Inverse folding.
């Protein structure tokens, strides 16, 4: 225990003894954190383990402490009273929060939190036996100004039974388990000196929000010192001020609000993360984004819009000043839209969610909206109706040019061109300001052809002279837009199934009928010709709320043909049929898992051997911390992934395979 923490505890005890804490904090029986103890099963079987939850609800403005409270504070002290032969396991805390007061770092909970443990019941108890569980807990509760030591007496009674668990209670415990840090499954290293350097394996492909390392090992780091965290390939390197030497360092790497991984690091050599060359890196990424945006103009989703806008500029015969103004406005629309999409993307990733460019296309509702939009543009190009506003292709004006540039950028999101992947991938690991510059480069490249037309009179003079051919050309440009709409319909079908695709095509049909009606009213010179079109578009857009993502089809997540998602029911069915089963548990954030999958599991030799031997493959994806998989993993005495199990035909128990696999390890199972 550090001297600062010892002094802090003595001060708290002295204040409580002298009664100098605020009167409101000393009302007898009043507690600022309400606690209760809950068992996952009220009727556990004799000799079994039953999960216990210590549920804590702080009053507004108050907080409790993590098991390592940080620079000051104290962890809860628990005193259990249990029947003879019963015992409780270690406490498991959810991922904490940081709280800095006057430069002092605290590890706290300012929201409701739940600590989990397990009660081991003695064997031989008869059904109906009452098992009382008592807990006396001393803890510290604080605001940002005052602290109060509190005490709670908690109790529950269990009745020995069949171990049944109420579904609502199971759902509560599953939610509490999701808040626990997950084992990373890959070894970490640390190197200590004046600076502690910690290297944690973490795939570069996985997004991470605001990372922070919460140390559990006391006297290893200076809690108040800032932490520098940088990516180094498939690892994170954490640097902070060291305060002592340790044989091992344990802690939690938080990757976002309520999300984190349990870390145990052993001594080793840890090189500092390579310092990037920011200016050079940003310039290269900016150039790649600019070229990628430039090449987007020949994609079927953008080329028609650019072509019509360029021809309208040639047809209008406006002055050079007007042409430049339109070019600037068009560029502003494209750049603003790309930066807005990029800003949303960075915000999503900062929250710890993996996402990439065109992230919005992962939502079937957005895909349906894009389907209606591109279909409407195609129908406009085909001559079904005329657009008075926004001025797309056949009108002039700065407002119309801005709207057209924004439209071109938004419609371009389903398209991917050369140079874009590397440039936007670089943007996601750059500082936010530099990343936004890269997204601006994409929009600038997209708008560059029209901008050059506005500022270079020689280019405008080379445009074809207006004539009747322009109407035929415009109708021809509807074809690539219809192809874009077809591609979006296919994406919608992949995401929402046949029902979703049918709903999307129905929305497009409804919009098309309304636009056709508008076109007929325009030809007749009717007032308010856009009424039916607007009504149909509103209904078509509203239908997006009805689209839902189709449930997983059970496709294999591995290179082995016939692999299925893991479930205990499917495992039991295959074993009942006498089939050999290879079950493995993985996660996207587990580097060891991914290495094993590429180097061993997904090799041709293993696929052929499993095929000849009739081995069924079940894959448990624990990326999102599925509590059902977590319970199964824990039942095999593992804290996390990777876990590899082989069930031979007729065998009673699973064979637990090593955590580092080779192709021979798996092929020998069959032979």
């Amino acid at each position: 225990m550090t001297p600062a923490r010892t002094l802090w505890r003595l001060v708290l005890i002295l204040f409580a003894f002298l009664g100098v804490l605020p009167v409101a904090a000393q009302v007898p029986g009043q507690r600022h954190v309400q606690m209760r103890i809950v068992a996952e099963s009220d009727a556990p079987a004799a000799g079994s383990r039953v999960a216990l939850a210590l549920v804590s609800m702080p009053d507004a403005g108050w907080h409790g402490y993590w098991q390592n409270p940080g620079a000051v504070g104290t962890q809860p002290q628990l005193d259990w009273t249990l029947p003879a032969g019963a015992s409780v396991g270690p406490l498991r805390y959810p991922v904490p929060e940081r709280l800095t007061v006057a430069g002092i770092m605290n590890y706290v909970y300012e929201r409701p939190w739940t600590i989990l443990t397990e009660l081991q019941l003695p064997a031989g108890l008869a059904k109906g036996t009452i098992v009382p569980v008592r807990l006396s807990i001393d803890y510290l509760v604080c605001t940002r100004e005052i602290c109060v030591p509190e005490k709670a007496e908690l109790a529950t009674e269990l009745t020995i039974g069949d171990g049944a668990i109420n579904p609502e209670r199971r759902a509560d415990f599953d939610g509490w388990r999701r808040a626990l840090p997950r084992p990373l499954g890959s070894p970490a290293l640390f190197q200590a000196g004046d600076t502690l350097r910690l290297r944690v394996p973490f795939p570069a492909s996985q997004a991470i929000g605001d990372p922070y390392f919460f140390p559990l090992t006391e006297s290893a780091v200076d809690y108040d010192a800032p932490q520098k965290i940088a990516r180094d390939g498939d690892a994170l390197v954490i640097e902070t001020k060291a305060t002592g030497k340790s044989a091992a360092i344990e802690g939690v790497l938080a990757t976002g609000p309520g999300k984190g991984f349990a870390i145990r690091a052993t001594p080793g050599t840890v090189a500092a993360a390579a310092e990037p060359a920011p200016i050079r890196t940003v310039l290269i990424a900016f150039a790649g984004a600019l070229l990628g945006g430039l090449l987007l103009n020949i994609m079927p989703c953008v080329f028609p819009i650019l072509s019509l806008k360029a021809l309208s500029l040639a047809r209008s015969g406006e002055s050079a000043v007007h042409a430049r103004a339109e070019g600037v406005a068009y560029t502003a629309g494209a750049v603003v839209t790309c930066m807005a999409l990029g800003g949303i993307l960075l915000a999503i990733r900062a929250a710890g969610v993996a996402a990439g460019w065109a992230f919005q296309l992962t939502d079937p509702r957005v895909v349906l909206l894009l389907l209606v939009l591109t279909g409407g543009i195609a129908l406009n190009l085909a001559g079904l109706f005329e657009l008075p506003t926004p001025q797309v292709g056949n009108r002039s004006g700065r407002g119309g040019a801005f709207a057209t540039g924004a439209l071109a950028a938004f419609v371009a999101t389903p398209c991917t061109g050369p140079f874009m992947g590397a440039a936007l991938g670089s943007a996601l690991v750059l500082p936010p300001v530099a990343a936004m510059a890269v997204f601006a480069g994409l929009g600038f490249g997209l708008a560059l052809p029209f901008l050059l037309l506005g500022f270079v009179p020689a280019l405008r003079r080379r445009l074809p002279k207006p004539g009747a051919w322009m109407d035929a050309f415009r109708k021809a440009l509807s074809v690539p837009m219809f192809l874009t709409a077809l591609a979006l319909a296919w994406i919608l079908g992949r995401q929402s199934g046949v029902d979703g695709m049918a709903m999307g095509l129905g929305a497009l049909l409804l919009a098309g009928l309304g636009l056709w009606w508008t076109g007929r009213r325009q030809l007749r010179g009717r007032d308010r010709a856009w009424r039916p079109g607007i009504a149909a578009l509103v209904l078509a857009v509203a239908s997006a709320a009805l689209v839902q993502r189709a449930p997983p089809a059970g496709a294999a997540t591995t290179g082995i043909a016939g692999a299925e998602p893991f479930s205990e029911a499917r495992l039991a069915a295959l074993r009942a049929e006498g089939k050999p089963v290879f079950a493995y548990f993985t996660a996207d954030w587990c580097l060891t898992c991914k290495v094993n999958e590429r180097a061993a599991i997904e090799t041709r030799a293993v696929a052929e051997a499993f095929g000849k031997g009739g081995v069924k493959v079940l894959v448990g994806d624990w990326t999102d911390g599925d509590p059902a998989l977590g319970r199964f993993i824990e039942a095999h005495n593992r804290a996390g992934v990777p876990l590899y199990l082989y069930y031979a035909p007729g065998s009673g128990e699973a064979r637990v395979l090593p955590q580092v696999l080779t192709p021979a390890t798996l092929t020998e199972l069959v032979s």
Q: What stands out?
A: The chain has 17 helices and 23 strands. Residues 12-26, 389-396, 553-558 have pLDDT under 50 and may be disordered. The chain has four domains: 3-179, 188-267, 278-546, 564-670.
